[in-house]
Amino acid sequence: MMLPLRTENLRAALAATLEEISHSGLFLLTDSNVATHVLPKILNVLTDKEEARIIEIPAGEDNKNLDTLTQVWSSLSEGGATRNSLLINLGGGVVTDLGGFAAASFKRGIRFVNIPTTVLGAVDAAVGGKTGIDFNGLKNEIGAFANAECVIISSEPLATLPREEILSGLGEIVKTAMISSGELYKKVLDDRILSDMNLLQDAMAECVRFKARITEEDPHESGLRKILNFGHTAGHAFESLMLTRHTPVTHGCAVANGILVALILSHMHLSLQSDQIYLYKDRILQHYFPPIPFTCKDYDKLAEIISHDKKNSASSDWKFVLLSAIGTPHRDISVSKEDLFTALDIYKDLTGI
């Protein structure tokens, strides 16, 4: 995969990409929201360079399904797409996930470029090769591993996003910073991270580069790639718990709170310095995200969710990604139910819930 292209000028980046990737037949997939707010910014590039067929799908996770995928396949077929055609996926995670799978499966694979329009889409869904659709009520149940030719990272689309949407992506940026390097973590700790679009864009691009390196080395999540799950074991449990209460939180908020649990466990198992726990709590978690409300009565439910998520229901131990220091992750660290409950106790004390 080409290195992600970080740019202040989305139009120039797209024009350069179209020049660099040889193709015959250009298609662009987007959703109804992005078609209104972002697509007009690059239409002149598409019309100046060549005729591009626009494929618009309804916005929202509910449309990441087989019917929508079939619509995209039909549009590619009716537009005369060949094995040498190029598909541009312009949108958030739903568009890059579904568009990537459409490209990977149409005529056994055509090339595609991702232009994420959300922070979460840029640092999580747009790179790494995981593509797919939801099926039978299960997220990403059908899909394929397929890498984009290029990922264009630009702050321009972010101007249309509400603060909550940007914060959801910040949770994933923090996760990547903590497992990758102290320098990136310093950027995330900067109070200007949300107000300075250049700083945010730099952090997003570094996250994408890091994930691209990890997934290139371990494309099918058999080893090293597991470190990308840092904060997600408890985070997914928090996310599921809140869904059962019909008070959902964003993915980034759940992961951000899951990171605090992971840091506590890291101190318990790998002697991570305790000041890292307090630094994260004070400068990141309490600054940007609300805590997840739960009581001791919810511990067994959280444990049940983790057991199911990790397919470890026969055991009271689970495998976590933990840190011995910022930038030094360790995968497959066994955590007992007793240790998890202790970490949840400490989490409650630290957050005051």
What brief labels describe this structure?
353 residues; alpha/beta; Rossmann fold; 14 helices
Provide an overview of this structure:
The chain is α/β, with parallel strands linked by helices and 353 residues long. The chain folds into two domains: 5-161, 3-Layer(aba) Sandwich (Rossmann fold), CATH 3.40.50.1970; 164-351, Dehydroquinate synthase-like - alpha domain (Dehydroquinate synthase-like, alpha domain, Up-down Bundle). 50% of the residues lie in helices and 18% in strands. The chain is built from 14 helices and ten strands. The protein has helices at residues 10-20, 32-37, 43-49, 66-78, 93-105, 119-125, 163-180, 182-189, 197-217, 232-244, 251-270, 274-288, 299-309, 337-351; strands at 5-7, 26-31, 52-57, 86-91, 111-116, 130-135, 138-145, 150-154, 317-325, 328-336. The strands form three sheets. A six-stranded parallel beta sheet has the order 1-8-5-4-2-3, with helices on both faces. It has a two-stranded antiparallel ribbon with strand order 6-7. Strand 6 and strand 7 (138-145) form a beta hairpin. Helix 1 (10-20) packs parallel to helix 3. It is globular.
Low-pLDDT residue intervals, each spanning 5 or more residues: none
Number of domains: 2
Helix content: 40-55%
What number is the mean pLDDT? 89
Compressed to H and E, one letter per element, the order equals EHEHHEHEHEHEEEHHHHHHHEEH
Instruction: Look at the structure and give the CATH class of the largest domain.
Output: Mainly Alpha
CATH topology of the largest domain: Dehydroquinate synthase-like, alpha domain
Largest sheet: 6 strands, parallel
The amount of beta strand, in percent, is 15-25%
Which CATH architecture of the largest domain would you pick? Answer: Up-down Bundle
Count of DSSP strands: 10
Tertiary shape: globular
> If you compute it from the alpha carbons, what radius of gyration comes out, rounded to the nearest whole angstrom?
20 Å
